[in-house]
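Recall from the previous lesson that a structure prediction takes nothing but the amino acid sequence as input. Here we apply that procedure to ATP synthase subunit I from Chondromyces crocatus. The sequence below is the only information supplied.
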Amino acid sequence: MSRKQHDESPFDVRQEGDLAPARPKDGLDASMRAALVAVAATTAVLTLGALFSYSPRVALGVGLGGCIAVLNLYVFAKIVDAFIGRRGNAAPWAVIAVIKVVGLIGAVWLILRTNVVPPLSLTVGFSALIVGITLGSLFGPKPPDDHEPRSRP
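The prediction returns the following tokens.
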């Protein structure tokens, strides 16, 4: 693979002798990507179901809750990757974690305070996080085994 192709590839190329699997440049492994896609797909299905079953206002609430769930999971994944990967200083990620929590609570408070959408529809949308993570774990790619099986004496 030429150097130009390597720079254009979204995945890091393993060098000969490397033991670690190649990881995407954004730091998210295949399991986390599957969970994110499943949460987004669940949000879409729930939003369409609310649109056809109830009203556009309820569907907006479900969609907002689902979007908050997807963003929450993505930022959480980046924060965990930064702490576990120990690449560079983790202090900025600690600040981002606090901002994430304050932003999440503030956004939900603002949405509920202005009565833009019904609270139950927002909750249904946010439940896409639970359903999506479950589906992504069950049907997504399995993480590689890190350990060689031991032979018993």
